[in-house]
Amino acid sequence: KTENGVLVDSKGMTLYPFDKDKETPGKSACSGQCAENWPPLMATAEDKKSGDYDVVKRDGDQSQWAYKGQPLYLFKKDSKPGDMTGDGVKDVWHVIKP
């Protein structure tokens, strides 16, 4: 869903794509320490493609939500709904404006 013009999860937390994922279409390039700071928006085995949203596989047989092919992440420094502190971090993390 969207709030204040940006894509958010069901709790209202801002979602971010990772620019480096564009180098590996349909797969996440964020794991280890990256995934600790930028937790993937995890999907369950029952989750299926819906409109612009799809599910991509992660390492370890886990799944993650993607928007228009870009895996989605939360940012651990965002503490409450509406926070967008990850926008522009290292020039590779940005909010999504559908």
Characterise this structure:
- This protein has one helix at residues 33-37, and strands at 2-3, 6-7, 42-43, 53-58, 62-67, 70-71.
- By secondary structure, it is mainly beta.
- Strands 3, 4, 5 and 6 form a four-stranded antiparallel beta sheet that branches.
- Strand 4 (53-58) and strand 5 form a beta hairpin.
- It is globular, with a radius of gyration of 12 Å.
- The model has no long low-confidence stretch (mean pLDDT 94).
Secondary structure: elements and pairs:
Blueprint (H helix, E strand, L loop, with lengths): L1 E2 L2 E2 L25 H5 L4 E2 L9 E6 L3 E6 L2 E2 L27
Antiparallel strand pairs: 1-2, 3-5, 4-5, 5-6
Quick overview of this protein structure:
This protein is mainly beta and 98 residues long. It contains one helix and six strands; from the N terminus they run ββαββββ.
